[in-house]
Amino acid sequence: MRLKIYLSLSLFAAALSFAQEKKTEKPKFNQELATSLGADKYGMKAYTIVMLTTGSVKIEDKAKMAELMKGHMTNIGKLADEGKIIVAGPFLEKNKENFRGMFIFNTKSKEEAEQWVKTDPAVQAGVFSYEIFPWYGSAALPTYLEHHKEISKENP
């Protein structure tokens, strides 16, 4: 009986050890992909984050506000299609900084990011203002967008 338990535990330990080895096995480095994404030796690159904040203009006309928000969403889609914006989304809770949403732009240039954010109709109207920050993240970040289209049934 003890031998059966010992053998069972040994097999179980061996299986766990093998499973752990599989998890820690490093994927093969893909130089072509790293180069195409602009990755440094750590697989990272510089981006620019734009934090949208509450602007100085409050629009009471619901139809006008709906039109601006539709333009805001259309502009995000256009910038994404052009490869300029790789992350965009609103914050789900109010915060003391009045951050409303954020963009991660596929550029390390704050000036270029500012040109792109100024194409937003809600920014142009003063509904949103913004702050710009340099950021360092995974060079693979832009690749998630191609899969997002596969998992979303509707666009907002």
From TrEMBL:
<dbReference type="InterPro" id="IPR011008">
    <property type="entry name" value="Dimeric_a/b-barrel"/>
</dbReference>
<protein>
    <recommendedName>
        <fullName>YCII-related domain-containing protein</fullName>
    </recommendedName>
</protein>
<comment type="similarity">
    <text>Belongs to the YciI family.</text>
</comment>
<dbReference type="Pfam" id="PF03795">
    <property type="entry name" value="YCII"/>
</dbReference>
<keyword id="KW-0732">Signal</keyword>
<dbReference type="InterPro" id="IPR005545">
    <property type="entry name" value="YCII"/>
</dbReference>
<feature type="signal peptide">
    <location>
        <begin position="1"/>
        <end position="19"/>
    </location>
</feature>
<feature type="domain" description="YCII-related">
    <location>
        <begin position="63"/>
        <end position="135"/>
    </location>
</feature>
